[in-house]
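Okay, any thoughts on this one?
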Amino acid sequence: MDGTLPDIRPRFVELCCGSGGMALGFIQAGWDCVLGIDIDEDACDTFAHNLGIPVVRASVHDVNFHTEIDAIVAGFPCQSHALSGKRLGLADPRGQVVYGVLRIAQEMRPKVLAFENVPGLITSPDADGERGGALSFILKEMMDLGYTVSYDVLNANDYGIGQSRKRLFIVGSLDNGLWIRPTPYAERRVVFDELFDLLEEDIDLPNHEKMKHKPETEEKLSLLRPGESLYGNFTESWKRLALDEPAPTQKENHGALSVHPLEPRCITAREMARLQGFPDDFEFLGTKSSVLKQIGNAVPIPLAKAVARSIVPLLN
């Protein structure tokens, strides 16, 4: 079945909404976002400022819903499941945010649940430390609520953005429908496709202030070849982008961003947002570090849009 929308636009609530990347992708696919919820103040401000949709700054543990919707969308925190962290899984308070998400799902029982996280969730431990227990717990809870559940790892580069970024999606259907991953696109975009008009022109855009480095740092950056990192033990940060390749996964990395493909500097927040698929008029609010965190935590908009289209058949 294709992603043809029903006559009435499906409605969704996004939990742990961040700055609005997932929501924007769903909106571009023809969905209506009813409400966003997140605990981060700057992310909530960015969400409301750009999308004009009500957003509540709160923990999912502290809210209750009684609104009829078609789907709950949630990208609950990934730090406790990421391969680069301590990997405490569901023993970490950040990992336990999913408990609140599942509680709200039980209260609302929408037709579809669509959850996003890092692929590391597949092997992340549960609260007792059992490897792979976190995902097993989530799947069981969803099935106990009556959902038919499937999951898959998708790469954003397969769906219209010049960034290689793998994300796990878990989708549940209340009507016994089985989610099928969206078909990858034939085109594979690269860094040049996302940044070409910014390479030679100094365009005035929000969040596009160029980073200033020390002269000795600039000199080192100028010598980097495409794909080479300033520090050999860093696989993603301080790494020069190659114009003819997808960018590596874009993360805040405590300010250690990707290096511009041509200039001796790290990329700007706007260039990073371009690699995530955000339109240029999408303005991020907050401090510089907060803005970079918001962009790095977002789901690439084209990937979210592809997922939104792929779950439409579960509504019919």
